[in-house]
Amino acid sequence: MATPSVPWWRDAVMYQVYLRSFRDGNGDGVGDLRGARAGLPYLATLGVDGLWLSPCFPSPQHDHGYDVADYCAVDPLFGELDDVDRLLADAHALGLKVILDVVPNHCSTEHPRFREAVLAGPGSVARERFHFADGHGADGELPPNNWRAMFGGPAWTRIQEADGRPGQWYLHMFTPHQPDWNWRNPEVANHFDDVLRFWLDRGVDGFRIDVAVGLFKHPALPDSPDPAADEEARDAVNPLAWNQPEVHQVWRRWRAICDMYTASDGRERTLVGEVAVPTPADQARYLRPDELHQAFYFDLLHTPWDASAFRQRIGAAMRDIASTGAPVTWVLNNHDQQRTVTRYSRGAVLGEKPDADRGTARARAAALLMLALPGSAYLYQGEELGLPEVTDLPPEVLTDPIVTATGEPDRGRDGCRVPLPWSGTQAPFGFSDAPPERSWLPQPGWFARYTVQRLRGDGGSCWHLYRDALQLRRSLSPLHDPGLHWLPSPPEVVAFARGGKFVCAVNFSDAQVTAPVCGKPVLSSLPCDDGKLAANSAAWWLVDNPPHACGQCPPSHETVDLTVTWKGLGD
Ligand code: NOJ
After folding, report:
1. Whose CA is nearest to atom 10 of ligand 1?
2. Tens digits of per-residue pLDDT, 464-481?
3. Is 82 helix (H, G, I), strand (E, B) or coil?
4. Residues contacting residue 278 through CB under 8 Å, at least 6 positions apart
């Protein structure tokens, strides 16, 4: 996608391989590295630039690999180290980049350093690597502060000391199985330098950084002003636990490591952070030229299907992130969120029944919108199939620790993690050679309508829409322009031009509207004829003249200035 002078990550479309659900290569019902490797030609045909691989490291899997027991090895559930090497070699031979998931905020209670800390006792050097503290109350029976964990419950757990008596507490911002590292201890930073080098030496193209706003906590660990709010939102809100100024030193350090590798062999590496912060301007601080290359812009993912909301969020990202010279990294789906098809099937009116066709139409339109925006985009596996969320998994099969911690099945993330349907008419739909009952989550019968095999054979399918969009995105030069210009449009339509020759328009309403551009589009999410844009649809046009010059289209009225200048944000 990128022209030679532009680093690949700036406008790459990456595909998230959620390993345990992508493809099972050894017939145990859980996706693995061998399966991922077998799926690489599929990704190359789809036309993405690379993949982000969810954690494959040794882990007791309490949070599906985000509880890491060893950062420099592979869990036998997923294969062995050689499988990563083979996957990297095959991916690179196909022209695909590979980035790994690194989890620096917390590890697993089974990590040797944490076990050592428990055994070593209060005041030991080993405990300094984590956040151990004495409890309050006469007997230390109350947690050191009122912080709540992101997945529900207190953020502190009390351990039993070696002599069997109740002892200190340790901090975990997620589940009790995920103790937070103490990044104020220099040993922790050194350890992670080694982790990065270990994988960079094996040839990875970068890292997706879990909870990149975490790592440092307020040094005094004071009470949170609003612990209930901290627990309610799944994204970071506790101002004492997240987004501390010191975290930026870490990203500078990691950037320097990546830059050293790039300088030595000319291959660009990327660091893409999970940076959930209150505003795009806050996010831009993580994207300064010597910090992270990219950060997921989650705002679109949380935006309801509404033209003015989308226009506002896109505009804010362009104004506060792109204008600093950093690319915006768009995302509509991931392994933590309800899939777009289902999310958008809801009506605007409370109590209105979800409409699956409407959800599908909107998800297709949203995909064309995202892929037309300047910057990079991350797709989540199954998104290209228009796969809906599985909303009726029986309670006994749910595995998400959020459900265990909150007792609220609706908050769980299993529904977007059901193994992918590849082929055939019955479970496991080519996902695995194992009988369907071995799949780690059951696939519903209706997955038959969404198999890769079926959709590839249907020219009007969502798969073809994504493939065509990715091909055009690569080949159309106006889409390499870093800016966008809003075009005037009715309130229910979002329309913009890029590179003077490309126009994207999205109709957010449930009724057909007049298209903002004359002529036949090069791509549309629904049939787009006679100058009409169907309800809940999007289209791309190539125009000979900038839209305002065609005589029939109104003049462009708003311009986002994207001259790439560094505004110089202070610390
Ligand atoms: C964000 C990851 O995407 C999510 O799956 C995980 O549970 C938390 N971080 C904790 O690591």
Report:
1. 66
2. 999 999 999 999 999 999
3. helix
4. none
Verdict on whether the full-model pTM lies above 0.90? yes
Q: Among the atoms of ligand 1, which is closest to the Cα of residue 401?
A: 7
pLDDT of 563 reads 31
Residues listed for the chain: 571
Tokens of 246: 């010191």
**b/e per residue, 516-555, with b = 16+ CB within 10 A?**
bbeeebebbbbebeeeebbbbbbbbbbbeebbeeeeebee
CA distances 356 to 45, 385, 389, 420, Å, are 28, 14, 11, 19
From 66, 67, 209, give the residue whose CB has the most ligand 1 atoms within 8 Å, as the site to mutate.
66
C-alpha 393 – ligand 1 centre gap (Å): 21
Token digits for 500?
Answer: 């003077």
Residues of the chain with pLDDT under 70: 1-4, 233-236, 350, 546-571
Among candidates 118, 104, 98, which has minimal Cα distance to 49?
98
Task: Compute the CA torsion angle 428, 434, 436, 442 (nearest 10 deg).
Answer: -80
| Domains delineated in the chain | 8-105+185-469 (3.20.20.80), 112-171 (3.90.400.10), 482-548 (2.60.40.1180)
Q: Tell me the pairing of strands 132-133 and 166-171.
A: antiparallel
| Per-residue pLDDT at 347 | 76
Pocket lined around ligand 1, Cβ cut-off 6 Å: 63, 66, 103, 174, 210-211, 274, 335-336
| Residue for token pair 């706003």 | 213
Per the annotation, the verdict on 210 as an active-site residue is yes
CA distances for 417 relative to 25, 37, 114, 400, angstroms: 17, 19, 29, 10
The model's pLDDT over 218-265, given as tens digits with 9 standing for 90+, comes to 999 999 988 888 777 655 678 899 999 999 999 999 999 999 999 999
80: how many CB neighbours lie within 10 A of its CB? 15
Conformation bin of residue 407: beta by default, left when phi > 0, alpha when psi is -120 to 50: left
Taking the CA of residue 105 as reference, the ligand 1 atom at the shortest distance is 11
Cα within 13 Å of Cα(272), Cβ side: 34
